[in-house]
Amino acid sequence: MTTLEDKLLGEKAHCYCSSSESEGEKSDDDSNNEIQTTSVVKEADAVPRPDPYKWEGSSTNTGPKGVMKDWQRFKQLETEKRAEQEKERQALIQKLSLTCKSALEEEREKSADIDSEMAELLSDEFLLQFQKQRMEEMMAKLATLPRFGKVVNIKDGQEFLDAIDKEDKAVTVVVHIYEESVPGCEAMNGSLISLSQDYQQVKFCKMIGSVAGISKRFKISGVPALLVYKAGQLVGNFVRVSEELGDDFFSEDVESFLLEHGMLPDKTCVPSIIKSQNDADDSDLSLE
């Protein structure tokens, strides 16, 4: 039978818990919590606390003085870098200048060596003797050329070809194409007669235009004409020479004209070696 106490406290069989058991369990839990709290407190006490008045680390002064100090440091580093670059540039310039100078000096020394060697070579008696010998051989070869001393009159085309092709290759052949009725042709024939005496190793010829088979127009406006051949090749072609010399001229005028164009050998261009030898020979003859 359920009593009033059971109704107030609940049925003991299902809902009621013994107060003694609960109190025992609660006391055990409280003791464990106290032990843990005590150990944590001890550990916290073991760690040293930082001094609130002691500063560790670094900080940046962002005030005006700090900014000015940073700017001065930056300019100092920039100046040092610029000075280092300028030093490197000056060293490079000096190196290049020394290289160029040495190259120029080497070139100058090489040129001086070549000049000295050439001077020694040119002053060598053996070389002078060799040059003299070669010049004498050339002069001797010219002396063997045929001599003419007159103006050859060509009568037909075959003689014209023979006068050129059958002649020595070293002989210069000057052919005057003329017409008797054209002014200037007579003066040219007279001038060639005089030149044939002065240049006897040059073959001077004359030929009427009708014999050469030239056109009527050329007979009127192309003569007097001078054709110069050497070794069978035409080396000079001068038409209407009277336009430059006039209708009345002399042998000196024709000579200057041919010398100017390189058609005659210049007698004034005698090698110094041959000239000195000739002068020595003349002095020996005068002493005798």
Q: Can you tell me about this structure?
A:
This protein is of the alpha/beta class and 288 residues long. Among the domains are: 74-125; 151-260, Glutaredoxin, CATH 3.40.30.10. Helices cover 61% and strands 10% of the residues. A five-stranded mixed sheet has the order 1-3-2-4-5, with helices on both faces. β4 and β5 (233-238) form a beta hairpin. The longest helix has 59 residues, at 64-122. Mean pLDDT is 75; it is low at 12-27 and 282-288.
Labels describing this entry:
phosphoprotein, Phosducin domain-containing protein, Phosducin, 11 helices, Glutaredoxin, single chain, alpha/beta, Phosducin_N_dom_sf, 61% helix, coiled coil
Order of helices and strands: HHHHEHEHEHHEEHHH
- Number of separate helices: 11
Q: Which regions have little confidence, pLDDT < 50, spanning 5+ residues?
A: 12-27, 282-288
CATH class of the domain at 151-260: Alpha Beta
Give the full name of the CATH homologous superfamily of the domain at 151-260. Answer: Glutaredoxin
Sheet having the most strands: 5 strands, mixed
Q: Give the CA-based shape.
A: elongated
**Total DSSP E strands:** 5
* CA(first)-CA(last) distance: 195 Å
- As for the CATH topology of the domain at 151-260, it is Glutaredoxin
CATH architecture of the domain at 151-260: 3-Layer(aba) Sandwich
What class would the helix/strand composition place it in? Answer: alpha/beta
> What spatial order of strands do you see in the largest sheet?
1-3-2-4-5
Arithmetic mean of pLDDT = 75
% residues in beta strands: 5-15%
Question: Helix amount, in percent?
Answer: 55-70%
* Radius of gyration (Å): 63 Å
